[in-house]
Amino acid sequence: MSSFLSRRAWSASAPLCLFRSLEEKLGLVALAIGMIFASAQTVFAHDMAVGPITVSQPWSRATPGGAKVAGGYLVIRNTGDQPDRLIAATSGISGRTEIHEMAVKDGIMTMRPLADGLTVPAKGEVVLKPGSYHLMFVDLKNGLKEGEPFKARLTFEKAGPIDLTFDVRAIGASDAGDHMGHGKSAGH
Ligand SMILES: [Cu+2]
Which of 3.60.10.10, 3.30.70.20, 3.40.390.30, 2.60.40.1890 would CATH assign to domain 48-184? Predict the structure, then answer.
């Protein structure tokens, strides 16, 4: 820090061209830092768009040994004037991929497949998250490991297919409602 301050003091008394050169260097450093952050966001966010539909932050979590199901979470935004509908999902990691909702029934949190898909309102969004709407990867071929992303495809009734990369977070990236609901679903 002290060397930086003395350098600033030195350059202030130096010819203008030297001072400008230092400013340009600082500017380049700032640009480089900005580019690192921008590319990091691109790598981690995995936002994808098709038509008026944008899907952001797809994530799942690592599964304990022998687990046969995993949840998938993301945000779907629709900037269009018409509602659209998520009608199907597929992934290489599972035998099938379902669209689920969770609800309290007779005081117990349960989940069920949405036979008609999930509507995304015009100029609106739907959040798939633990304890709420989610994708369910059923009949997992291998366990999911933290830090090992996987690909999946969502299909919208109007916008069509959209390919996504899901980040896999730690097993602990969970909430109680979600965990309980999956435990109850012996049918899976
Ligand atoms: Cu489910």
Answer: 2.60.40.1890
Ranges under pLDDT 70 in the chain: 1-45, 174-188
What is the Å distance from ligand 1's center to 53 Cα? 23
Q: What does the radius of gyration of the chain's CA atoms come to, in whole angstroms?
A: 23
Distance in Å, CA 131 to ligand 1 centroid: 9
CB 111 within 8 A of CB 100: yes
In this prediction the pTM is 0.69
Q: How far apart are CA 130 and CA 59, in angstroms?
A: 11
Q: How many CB atoms are closer than 10 A to CB 55?
A: 23
